[in-house]
Amino acid sequence: MKQQLTTERLMEIMRECAGYGEDVDALGDTDGADFAALGYDSLALLETAGRLEREFGIQLGDEVVADARTPAELTALVNRTVAEAA
Questions:
Q1: What is the spatial distance between Cα 75 and Cα 5, in angstroms, rounded to a whole number?
Q2: Taking the domains of the chain in order of start, what are their residue ranges?
Q3: pLDDT score at 29
Q4: Which of 14, 15, 42, 85 has its Cβ near the most Cβ atoms within 10 Å?
């Protein structure tokens, strides 16, 4: 079985891709927060998607990633794609 993405790991990757420090997540529970409200723009999302594709060996379409508005939605999308690829 392939590994699953957690929201915590997603946020770690996003911080690395965007060049943010750990204090970005100090808002508390980020699962349902909109990426824009968390300070992540479309470029950060695209870079994150590329990193997720490499790390999980999957393909994510740019428009599909753009439709994910929250960390919980993107985490579910990645895990669903990983499961379908297995």
A1: 6
A2: 7-20+28-85
A3: 64
A4: 14
- pLDDT for 78 equals 96
For residue 19 the two structure tokens come to 């060049």
Helix (H) or strand (E) holding 71: helix 71-85
Second CATH level (architecture) for the domain 7-20+28-85: Orthogonal Bundle (1.10)
pLDDT digits (tens, 9 = 90+) for 11-62: 999 999 888 765 555 555 676 889 988 888 888 899 999 999 999 999 998 8
Cα(10)–Cα(35) distance, rounded to whole angstroms? Answer: 12
Place of tokens 């740019």: 62
